[in-house]
Amino acid sequence: MSTASGRTSGAVRAKSDPLDLAGIDDMLSPEEKAVRAAVRQVCDTAVDPYVAEWFEKGELPAIRELAKELGGLGLLGMHLEGYGCAGMSAVDYGLACMELEASDSGIRSLVSVQGSLAMYAIRQHGSEEQKRRWLPPMAAGEAIGCFGLTEPDHGSDPAGMLTRAVRDGGDWVLDGRKMWITNGSVADVAVVWARAEEGVRGFVVPTDTPGFSAPLIKHKLSLRASVTSELVLDGVRLPGDAMLPEVRGLRGPLSCLNEARYGIVWGAMGAARSSLAAALEYAGQRTQFGKAIAGFQLTQEKLAHMAVELTCGTLLALHLGRRKDGPGLRPEQVSMGKLNNVNKALDICRSARTVLGANGISLEYPVIRHMANLESVLTYEGTPEMHKLVIGQAMTGLPAFR
């Protein structure tokens, strides 16, 4: 029964979660919440106490130990089936990405590149021998993978790639350069895309192959707690069975990118949630003009706006996850999620930064780190412009890429 004021009489309402005012948690199963809690626990112990220092120093010194810990939890390739992979749902994977990026975008990138790019390429397009050789150790975190598609002069237009694969007897010989490659300098295996006579093909390249090198990219001001490299292929000779046999053309790498973009849809909301939480806590403690700044109207306007945007982005991520687990996910739907959620996450981080004032630029708080990281997330796995064109083509039926 409702009273004249619109309040429900009788049962006492539970106090709402200020970071989940819409009650999205009620839409998750107990199993999904358990996955999220397990990822949060490992991030609380293995990442959060150290990540600000890693970011400040521009290094990820414990990457192999961290990979094994994440692998032991089943997070690497967790949405893939068989070969040591956990075979969990898309929503489970999304929730994991959200928690990982709530700690740092670089950590989520480590997991995304391993599972959604390198492992997915081998699982989806590889031979049985390639799957058996690489997927079990990669799932366990005992082997680290990277994904070589982007080149120094070809990012949004991979069709223009210059890396070449030439047959020499029964072998392949690869020559070229790849740029901005996460995990490159520490990888045991690289999935490299190159132009062959019959079109674009993928190759599984052990990184100890002569002619392969992966110099570290330095002087980054974003994704600093992440290993980013160039891949150099100078006459890299591979056996004929190093090629991924089940795909030809750009459909191969683009299918992998869609997998990774889906994780970003969730991950960006993790960075946003972390920044909102920091702003909310700070606003309740910071006193100006005789009271906590949380009590001022303009501060509450910022907090309310951030909460609404976080809710909308998380609902979109959950909707896309349910679609991925059910009827399927189309490329333009992934583009819509990536475009919206990264932009909204950046807006939330920037607004949270203003709530913290000068403290907002300090690594004592996570906000500036998330804000800087998201500048990379904004343009990798497809720039905003490219995702707008994907959506535009889906709406009009007319491609406008050229």
TrEMBL record:
> Which GO BP annotation is one of this protein's?
fatty acid beta-oxidation using acyl-CoA dehydrogenase
Q: Where is the Acyl-CoA dehydrogenase/oxidase N-terminal domain?
A: 29-142
* One GO molecular-function entry: flavin adenine dinucleotide binding
Q: Which co-factor is required?
A: FAD
Q: Which residues form a coiled coil?
A: none
Give the record's keywords alphabetically.
Answer: FAD, Flavoprotein, Oxidoreductase, Transit peptide
Where in this chain does the record put each Acyl-CoA dehydrogenase/oxidase C-terminal domain? 248-395
Q: Acyl-CoA oxidase/dehydrogenase middle domain: from which residue to which, for each copy?
A: 146-236
**KW Flavoprotein (keyword) present:** yes
InterPro entries per the UniProt record, alphabetical: Acyl-CoA_Oxase/DH_mid-dom (IPR006091), Acyl-CoA_Oxase/DH_mid-dom_sf (IPR046373), AcylCo_DH-like_C (IPR036250), AcylCo_DH/oxidase_C (IPR009075), AcylCoA_DH/ox_N (IPR013786), AcylCoA_DH/ox_N_sf (IPR037069), AcylCoA_DH/oxidase_NM_dom_sf (IPR009100), Glutaryl-CoA_DH_mitochondrial (IPR052033)
Pfam families the record matches: Acyl-CoA_dh_1, Acyl-CoA_dh_M, Acyl-CoA_dh_N
Keyword Transit peptide attached:
yes
Query: Can you tell which superkingdom this protein's organism belongs to?
Result: Bacteria
Which family does the UniProt entry place this protein in?
A: Belongs to the acyl-CoA dehydrogenase family.
Protein name per the record? Acyl-CoA dehydrogenase
